Amino acid sequence: MLAEQLGAEAAQVRLLILTVPLVLIAIVGVATRTRQASEFFAAGRRVPAVYGGLTFAISAFGGTGLLAITGAFFLIGFDALCLAIGGLAGFVVMGILLAPFLRKFGAYTIPSYLGARFESAALRMVAAVLISVPVAMFLVAELKMAMFATSFLTGASGLANLLSIGLVVAVTIGAGGYRAVAWSGVAKSILVILALLLPVTIIGIWLTNLPLPQLSQGPLVRSFSRLEAAQLPIVIAPGLAFDMPSDALTALGKRYAAPFGAIGPHGFVTIMLTIMMGIAVAPWLLPRIASAPGVYQARKSLGWATLVFGLVMLTCDRPPFFCVPSSSRILLPARSPNGFGSWRHSGWPKLWPERAALMPAG
Amino acid sequence: MIERKERKPYWRDTKWQMMASLIPFLAVVIVLPLYAERLNSNRFLGFPLGYFLAAHGLVLIAVITVASFVNRQDAIDHWHGAHEDH
Q1: Model's pTM, two decimal places?
Q2: Which of A18, A261, A340, A347 fits as disulfide partner to A249, beta carbons 3.0 to 4.6 Å?
Q3: In this complex, do A92 and B66 lie within 8 Å of one another by their Cβ atoms?
Q4: From B34, B51, B62, residue closest to A257, measured CB to CB
Q5: Residue among A258, A268, A295 whose CB faces B84 most closely
Q6: What is the residue-level pLDDT of chain B in tens, covering all 86 positions?
Q7: Could you state, in order of their start, the residue ranges of all structural domains in chain A?
């Protein structure tokens, strides 16, 4: 914004938005370079519980969660809660059942824990191979989101962006190992939380004159529900239905606060438990516990992770309501053939995505 | 370091604490969303009650569960001499 006021071009500002954090992360990586095993794999076991929890929550959420869960809330409302509740419960299970014991054992990674616990090198190899599958899948999803965001910012092709991001990641991890990941992760997590909370709070104050959008927007939800009741049918999905919206533009089909329109009740519980187990044993999260100073701190950092994840989840379900205009502008036909561009609010999409993020409705 | 004769009672207390924290939490997490529709006819702070409980309520319950687990497990560790110096 400052650069904009100084008269910089939009393209330059975007490039700045992209390069400044990347360069900062690379600097953190190089500054924390190390060759000691305990520093490389466990950040010297010095990461305090608060920061540990912060990086836990934000890396579980990731770029994927930031874009996809917010989008899912936008389109299927209540049913998207199964993703968020699953993550939340995953941290509770991890904090109670798994993390303290892994930390107590002192292993750096899950394969090294299994290898040492059962004294078997073969098991260690098998575990490493098995674990690389979900990690690769998560990496692909995250890189895709990163490519999406960087191509939006630079306008360049996907591959060039991917290579530049890959370079920064390689420099960071190669030089500093987990020590670099932990500390640059703390910086990134604080940025992510600010980036999520600030716009949501500012728009919340514009719309309702109250801070704390997570709690104060009840009346907004109510007026929203009234508009929906007039225009959208009540949809009840069959028990095991799992109808997640795709990334294509679709028209709104279900009421926000009414449960089980896109995902059936049994599907909801199944997906919730699946995600819970997935987060609880996630191989890109669980080894992070090795960096906690002690077992007590390890438990505590999972408590912080639960709190931060909850806060992020309660902030993520707000943006749908910002597309409700002030009372005079009513939603447009819900099942319009044009999809995204023409429902909920006609003036909005024209501004989107250039300005919409920081403009109140109208 | 934990003494040998303390190991069994320590593990028993730890196991009970684990179950006492996890089982009620999981029960609420699984059952509550299923009743959201019926609760939605009521309001709390303007939110439909079912939605409010499934989002805000579960976050609150999760945080309380972990916080109480951390405190009580720490007390168990101290009681049996299994804590680390911190």
Answers
A1: 0.83
A2: A340
A3: yes
A4: B51
A5: A295
A6: 677 888 888 889 999 999 999 999 999 999 998 888 888 888 888 788 888 888 899 999 999 999 999 999 999 988 888 777 65
A7: 2-103+135-325
